[in-house]
Amino acid sequence: MAKDYSQLAKDIVKNVGGETNVKSFFHCATRLRFKVNDTEKVKIDVLKQLSGVITVINAGGQIQVVIGNHVDRVYDAVIENTGLKPDGDVNVEAAAASEEKKNPVNLLMETVSGIFAPVLGVMSGAGMLKALLILLTTCKVLTADMGTYKILYAAADGVFTFIPFFLAYTSGKKFGCSPFAAMAVAAALVYPDITALKSAGEALTFMQIPVTLVTYTSSVMPIIISVYVMSKLEKLLKKVIPDVCRKFLVPMLELMIIVPATYLVIGPVMDGVGKFLASGYTGLVAINPAIAGGLLGLIWPAAVIFGLHWGFVPIVMNNIATYGRDTLFVITGPNNMAQAGACLGVFLKTKDKKLKEVAGPAALSAVLAGITEPAIYGVTLPYKRPFFIGAVFSGIAGAIVAVAGTSVPALLGTSLLTLPGYIGVGFVGFLAACVIAYFGAAICTYLFGFSDKMIAGNSEDSKKEVNSVA
């Protein structure tokens, strides 16, 4: 029987300040993310004490309630048991108008997470399907010329090929403009007749102005920037166009202006920026793979804690669009194994029953599904030393992966279930890195990274923290 999350949902909404304090909310892989009107009304200390809540983070005004891999069920319970609507149903005009000035880094992270978080699940699912197809073809169960393979590959690759559609919708919601008008712009960018001209190398002009044709399928940045510009245009048009003809005239003018502007300016410029970022990243790794991979792996756990890892998603997607493969998330992937190993070390070492009940499932979730938040926030970070041991082994593993040159053609999280997706060049090095990260962190944590004496100390620290907040 499925667990009932109704009370937890009500308690969460109550302690984020109530329904009237919530502008919008959505969820990513493990977190409920609330945009609130007044952070002073949010009772973070009370939220942290709720059974079912791992921790709570205030990231630039966005309240992130870390739940774990059942966050989708808590999200559904919030919708069913409160008056809050999904992020897709909020008044986007009001949300855009009420956007306050924020720290640029926080604003960037919030924007990126708001655009990519809603589609992360389907991208991960498509990546997993690609991994399964690689395994099936490697084992000779399927071949690339079989109809079964072609249909399943279309299901997996279609998400990445037509990712501009998905990002157009989420960008429209995030920037406060019509998501369907945004999708119409995306449709124009991947229109078959235009893509055929690009493939054939034929010239194209718009009002006698030469158009630089670029590939928009699988692209990320051109559609996001186009929708951002469109959101500003839409706001202006709604101010000057009478209500009687606004419904058809606003989208007509948006398409007439934004699509040519994207083909002429936005698309080519952002395509150049994307190629620069991709070549810049690969160039840094090429200078000294061991150092670059080691540093990236070392800082990645901290990036996850503060939600900064979202800022790398556009680069990952751009790498896939530019080169057909990505190495960035591959280098940082063994961090999941490192934190899982550190959590396992705590589980094996402690004699505290309550901690074992938390650490066991968290370690299993991290190694099987790649969901590390329960391990980090619930086990390794509160006791500090296990977290830093995991970070060190994440750095060691990152250096190994970078030197091995492992890459994947899709967005994949690292776990036991996704390992087949890494089969190819550098797979042995990647596998070795994961083994070293997992067992190295587990052994070191068990030997000198944790003792039950830390439990009392951590409890006192928590009390001081709660009192200081209050």
**Rg calculated over all Cα atoms:** 24 Å
Average predicted confidence as pLDDT: 84
Structurally, the number of domains stands at 3
Q: Unreliable runs, pLDDT <50, ≥5 residues? A: 88-100, 459-470
Strand order of the largest sheet: 1-2-4-3
Share of helical residues: 55-70%
Derived structural class: mainly alpha
Question: Outline, from the CA principal axes?
Answer: globular
The helix count comes to: 20
Largest beta-sheet characterization? 4 strands, antiparallel
Number of strands: 6
Strand content: 5-15%
- State the end-to-end distance: 38 Å
List SSEs in N-to-C order: HEEHEEHHHHHHHEEHHHHHHHHHHH
Question: How is this structure best described in words?
Answer:
It is a single chain. The protein has 470 residues and is mostly helical. It has three domains: 6-90, Gyrase A, domain 2 (2-Layer Sandwich), CATH 3.30.1360.60; 112-284, no CATH class; 288-461, no CATH class. It contains 20 helices and six strands. The chain has helices at 6-15, 44-49, 71-81, 92-97, 104-138, 147-161, 163-175, 179-189, 192-200, 221-240, 243-287, 289-305, 313-323, 328-332, 334-349, 353-369, 373-380, 385-404, 427-449, 453-469; strands at residues 22-27, 31-36, 55-59, 62-66, 205-206, 209-210. Strands 1-2-4-3 form a four-stranded antiparallel β-sheet, with helices on both faces. It has a two-stranded antiparallel ribbon with strand order 5-6. The chain starts with 5 loop residues before the first helix and ends with a helix. The model is unreliable at 88-100 and 459-470 (pLDDT under 50).
